[in-house]
Write a structure and sequence with these properties.
single chain, 320 residues, alpha+beta, three-stranded antiparallel beta sheet, 10 strands
């Protein structure tokens, strides 16, 4: 709608200052000609907006002009009150600020939208933590936040999973990321993106050196590379199993990260065939959690590995 677009232009100019016409056109997915027509419409309605052409030109508001209009629609008002788990804000020390901000937004909302926003805050709850995730170690994000916002390098003492002793790294932070209730530091180490779990950071020291990020790379860019590395990591070892039908739903949930496609289920029979992908044979030991409800059909190396592991457990509990 044109009215929404005009308001978007106004708010963008208020927050960004001078903005090139082509950038506004790209952001709002219209032509540059349409942007100039919109500027004429804003000007005709009394908004002190003007355009400067040329290499360093752009569109901007007259210095000092501000508007208090929120322009929020009913859906936008509701969306503001559907927030992530409070734990994320608490970890950043922003719980009180969040509550204050929401009260201010509620006061600024158009009167017709306030009841819907208030009901949304009571009827919709987002909890980003997993079921039965177990107790989580307290995470101190203060130094990590300081480095992120001060654009400084960090010296970390970091313990990797499966290792007893921490290692020391000097990193260049891009920012902090919360995924499924777990905080991570996204940073470059020697010019390559790395992901560090905040609860495995044993100590962090803010260095005097300015951060050395790769030119043009933002937090979202670095995270996208890291995300693909995890999700598209080649398995290398395909394992074929059969699953008892009464455990199929649990199997799908627990093995989602290793499943290759959906299990072959024709809706009949006691067993369902499924294919999994692992990096190494030892990772398949997780299948022992299903006891006799899951049987490995191939390859033989995985059957042998599980047989050895099961025998080891039997000896452990059979010993006096």
């Amino acid at each position: 709608m044109k009215s929404d677009r005009l308001l978007s232009i106004l708010l963008l100019l208020q927050t960004r200052g001078r903005v090139p016409a082509h950038e506004l056109a790209e952001r709002l997915e219209v032509s540059v000609r349409t942007i100039y027509r919109d500027i004429e419409a804003l000007s005709a309605s009394g908004v002190p907006v003007y355009a400067e052409r040329g290499r360093h030109g752009g569109i901007q508001l007259l210095a000092g002009f501000r508007t208090d209009v929120t322009g929020l629609t009913a859906d936008e008002s509701r969306a503001l009150f559907i927030l992530a788990a409070e734990g994320a804000h608490a970890a950043l020390g922003l719980d009180a600020a969040l509550g204050s901000a929401l009260r201010k937004v509620m006061a600024a909302l158009p009167a017709p939208h306030r009841p819907a926003a208030e009901v949304t805050s009571r009827r919709i709850l987002v909890d980003a933590t997993r079921w039965r995730g177990g107790p989580q170690q307290a995470v101190d994000l203060e130094v990590l936040q300081d480095a992120v916002f001060a654009d400084r390098r960090l010296k970390l003492r970091y313990r990797h999973s499966g290792e007893h002793e921490p290692r020391t790294y000097t990193v260049d932070p891009y920012g902090l990321l919360s995924k499924a209730g777990v905080w991570y530091l996204v940073a470059d180490r020697r010019g390559r993106p790395r992901l560090f779990r905040a609860d495995r950071v044993r100590s962090a020291k803010l260095l005097d050196d300015p951060v050395r990020r790769r030119p043009g790379v933002e937090l979202a860019d670095a995270w996208e590379v890291l995300r693909r590395q995890v999700e598209e990591r080649p398995g290398g070892l395909e394992v074929v199993v059969r699953v008892r039908r009464d455990r199929l739903d649990m199997f799908r949930r627990m093995m989602a990260s290793t499943l290759v496609g959906l299990p072959d289920d024709d809706g009949h029979g006691e067993w369902v065939t499924a294919r999994l992908s692992y990096r190494v044979v030892a990772e398949a030991r997780q299948l022992l959690a299903f006891s006799d409800r899951v049987e490995v059909l191939s390859p033989p190396s995985v059957r042998e590995e599980l047989a050895r592991a099961a025998a080891s457990v039997t000896r452990l509990y059979a010993s006096e």
